[in-house]
Amino acid sequence: MAALSAPAVLFTVGMIAFPVVYTVWLGFQTFSSTGKQSFAGLANYTKLISDTEFWHGLWVTIALFVLSLALQLVFGVWLALVLFHARRLSGIVRSLFISPFMMPPVVAGMMWLVILDPSLGAANYVLQSVGLPPSDWLASPTWVIPTVALIDSWQWTPYVALIVLGGLQSLPPSVYEAAQIDGASPLKTFQRITLPLLLPTIVTAAILRSVDLLRFFDIIYITTQGGPGNASNTLNIYGFRVGFEFFNIGYASALMLTLTAIVFGAVLAFNRLRGAVAW
Amino acid sequence: MTDAAHNERWIRWLNTVQLVIAGAVIMAPTVWMVLSSFKPSFEVTAYPPTVIFAPTLENYVELTRTTPFLSYALNSLIVTVGSTALGLLFGIPAAFAVSWTRITWPAILTLAARMAPGTLFLLPWYVMFRQVGMIGSYTALILSHAVITLPIVIWVLLPSFDAIPRSVFEAAQVDGCSVTRILWRIAMPLVASGIAVSAILAFVFSWNYFLFALVLSNGDTKTLIAAAFNFIGEGSTQWGALMAAATLIALPPLLLAALVQRWLVSGLTLGAVKG
């Protein structure tokens, strides 16, 4: 029996466990411009505390995380309710709904780059034709984070919706019948019955999205590379650039271990929340 | 018509309107991408944008003429097929063993790896692969992408293996069947559809993965996704070719996903949700 899992275990040790331990060790090293490495103790971590770019990256990461998660949960639950009341969904409709999150995030970035072009993009044309002012979208330091959140939400809201739809379909019909007999309004029924019963599913969707949102990379790297300036420089983008553009592997390791701790901390916190709303 | 029936129809109509709006928002950007890829170059950047035009394949021809698109596509195929095969080779027996023995830590470790930011692994891999001269090799790319495919295979298959009654295996064991034989002859045929779903999901996520190839590939082994920068170019002059590239890159995962759309959500949540 042990022999059956041996290849997977060996692979996991070689490609995951050992490299992570190695990253911890790299986090205690400094690399000079000539590539010479030496032991630095906690220098990378003290540097991190005084590094304004790190704190900026943390702020960008959290802002993007909160904004995207809120959008995706609100619209995801709405879309799930709409799909639920549509009853039967043909395979074609389902395929269309999953198409945003099954395409590569890089492709989503490429196509929104064209749509959101400040001077020739279709998005600004639509805004102007309904009398709204055009936006610089990804090129604007103020709007780049909401814009990236919007792109990611376009991609992943249907995913959240399908998870919540699964939760809706597994709710016992008897609770609705009771509400109907009591003459509860649809809004009251949703607020007092559906939403509380759905909360565990919604928290599960939140966990799955948080893991991706806290390490946000693909769409930003393909569209802005952290810009304009450093306006969309998330921790993952910052760590990547420190490591592979400036080749400061030691400091990048410290940054990435910190980000990993944040991701796992968030997952554990959400997991406790899920325990609290379970029924 | 009674009031209640009238209300019912009104609610149905309202729901359909919402469904159509949601569908339009979801589909519009993709439709725009595909339309733009068939526009003549002077019309791609027309402002106001045009919807009616004479479709042309010029962007696709331009793309294959000016960039090594086909060799990037071949690289993507090699890395994706290789890592999917490796994920299945390691993941199927591992999922079976975890399901049988209830020793879950190997499965949980691969899941933890899936949650950590990719850069966390990429930093030590870069140092390690450089030391042995493997940067730019297909081997390094396939091994790194197997970190994506292995947890997908294990976690999609775990519920399938769990669903097989124990008595099936116990009877085979009494008949003197070895564990490997039970897996190969009895368990795997029973979870064949699960294996197909896990293979397709692994393929899609390996194909879509960006970060690792960005650092571990070189000019000869660059995957389509990592080469996306080469297509973006300067300004809006190449929009037609860019949208042609985007359409072609998105096509394989979208076609495969349509095949398994029914099982997709439960598979994608790695067992957290039964959809």
Automatic annotation (TrEMBL), chain B:
<dbReference type="Pfam" id="PF00528">
    <property type="entry name" value="BPD_transp_1"/>
</dbReference>
<keyword id="KW-1133">Transmembrane helix</keyword>
<keyword id="KW-0472">Membrane</keyword>
<keyword id="KW-1003">Cell membrane</keyword>
<dbReference type="InterPro" id="IPR050901">
    <property type="entry name" value="BP-dep_ABC_trans_perm"/>
</dbReference>
<dbReference type="GO" id="GO:0005886">
    <property type="term" value="C:plasma membrane"/>
</dbReference>
<feature type="domain" description="ABC transmembrane type-1">
    <location>
        <begin position="73"/>
        <end position="260"/>
    </location>
</feature>
<feature type="transmembrane region" description="Helical">
    <location>
        <begin position="72"/>
        <end position="96"/>
    </location>
</feature>
<feature type="transmembrane region" description="Helical">
    <location>
        <begin position="12"/>
        <end position="35"/>
    </location>
</feature>
<feature type="transmembrane region" description="Helical">
    <location>
        <begin position="239"/>
        <end position="260"/>
    </location>
</feature>
<keyword id="KW-0812">Transmembrane</keyword>
<feature type="transmembrane region" description="Helical">
    <location>
        <begin position="108"/>
        <end position="129"/>
    </location>
</feature>
<feature type="transmembrane region" description="Helical">
    <location>
        <begin position="190"/>
        <end position="210"/>
    </location>
</feature>
<keyword id="KW-0813">Transport</keyword>
<feature type="transmembrane region" description="Helical">
    <location>
        <begin position="135"/>
        <end position="158"/>
    </location>
</feature>
<dbReference type="InterPro" id="IPR000515">
    <property type="entry name" value="MetI-like"/>
</dbReference>
<dbReference type="InterPro" id="IPR035906">
    <property type="entry name" value="MetI-like_sf"/>
</dbReference>
<comment type="similarity">
    <text>Belongs to the binding-protein-dependent transport system permease family.</text>
</comment>
<protein>
    <submittedName>
        <fullName>Sugar ABC transporter permease</fullName>
    </submittedName>
</protein>
<dbReference type="GO" id="GO:0055085">
    <property type="term" value="P:transmembrane transport"/>
</dbReference>
